[in-house]
Amino acid sequence: MRGYDKHAYEPFAVTVDLAVFTLRADALHVLLVERGQEPYAGRWALPGGFVRPEESAETAARRELAEETGLTDVTGPYLEQLRTYSEPGRDPRMRVVSVAFAALLPGPPEPRGGSDAAQARWVPCDEARGLAFDHDRILADARDRVGAELEHTCLATAFCPAEFTLGELQRVYEAVWGTTLDRPNFRRKVLATPGFVEPVPGAARLTGGRGKPAALYRAGPAAALRPPLLRTPREGHPA
Amino acid sequence: MRGYDKHAYEPFAVTVDLAVFTLRADALHVLLVERGQEPYAGRWALPGGFVRPEESAETAARRELAEETGLTDVTGPYLEQLRTYSEPGRDPRMRVVSVAFAALLPGPPEPRGGSDAAQARWVPCDEARGLAFDHDRILADARDRVGAELEHTCLATAFCPAEFTLGELQRVYEAVWGTTLDRPNFRRKVLATPGFVEPVPGAARLTGGRGKPAALYRAGPAAALRPPLLRTPREGHPA
DNA sequence: CCTCTTTATAGTCGCACTGACTATTAAGGG
DNA sequence: CCCTTAATAGTCAGTGCGACTATAAAGAGG
Predict the structure, then answer these.
(1) Which partner for B168 in B16, B164, B184, B189 could form a disulfide, CB atoms 3.0-4.6 Å apart?
(2) Residue A138 in contact with residue A45, Cβ under 8 Å?
(3) Is B88's CB within 8 Å of A35's CB?
(4) How many Å apart are A216 CA and D9 C1'?
């Protein structure tokens, strides 16, 4: 079916949808926009928009990310294609195929509403339900994917600012996985993985509040985490 | 950019491309079709075609898979969405967005050419180069993905018939990864993973050639492989 | 028939990683 | 000045895995 005669295919509208994650108060949040138009007017949805004729889906996703968050550094934030949603009827008006992306932001800027979005807001992931279109499904898939990637990639640093403590890194894992981790073991694992994190050379130490000041680290060059850091199904850390 | 006014978007053609893998003579093969039309007439390409208006990409992929291989059991073979390729200019004539899939077949049937494909052929993966469009890239991505999934899923059984020996299963890993594995260790790992394989209850044994007959196993209910079966970078097994 | 080759299966040994846990250090708060 | 909090250091045992040896059961070839 590679023939391109004019009756061989129907045109589709192609959009991107973004699951933009960040950590606020040690909880995983996702960026949502309130829809201003029908369908689903007044409902919350993942930010997104149409892919323009001269764009790839990746380019469109970066553009939408910049528009929605107000970020100027479009090359910076981690952005990854997830999968494409193409069920007929997922948009009640027309045939829309949507390429979903996940983005990870460190310091979450206050969102500024996009051109036609009534408003944009960070919402705790667990409270984001009843979204427009099939965005509940997309968000769940995105969260699963990010959680799985934490296990065998060094992706967690994408949630952290340029310099961070091991405690902050651990809280990324705990927020995404919804578990608690043993601190000494987490520390041992991260430091034993070459290239995961690099100590900031100066005796730089950060004090955010109480307790012993923690050493600062930067993200290292490694991308994979071998052997992986598996989440063990367990209930809670015995205090 | 969720406004749907008529100037907000341009229509795209949406296609699916399939990387159909199987094992022939202990080597990973991929199904290719020879293009009969311009562009890239006479060149080899991944099978694929347009998504029809009433179809999802998954449905279209199953349809194309059945058309290209002549398989009637469309629910059977493992099929997984990989990612979407949307670079402008990837098709010289028009704006085409393609959703790529990987399919895994056990007993490889002889391919029958699709409607407009001059012919279809199983080609050893290592010899499949110079494909049409961006299919070299898609094929490489698909192979990487399948190789990675063998590490932490029970996907390998999708390459095997309903009943298989552990030696056959091991050859799947060796063909996809391009390595050799230690047989006793592989065996220990597979049997120690609950739900990966189940012994065929009868004293059923298969003799395909020389050597001691091997016990037969079926694919078990497990999908994940935890802890994973990591490929260790090494050169070759000391005979 | 006997031996060699081939493949499957059983088991051993030691190292590396990890989960669970204890101890010590260095800050801030009352 | 003590208590709390958080970071860091270290211990110990169990598990998983790489490397390796040994045995069993078939066919091939003389």
Answers:
(1) B164
(2) no
(3) no
(4) 18
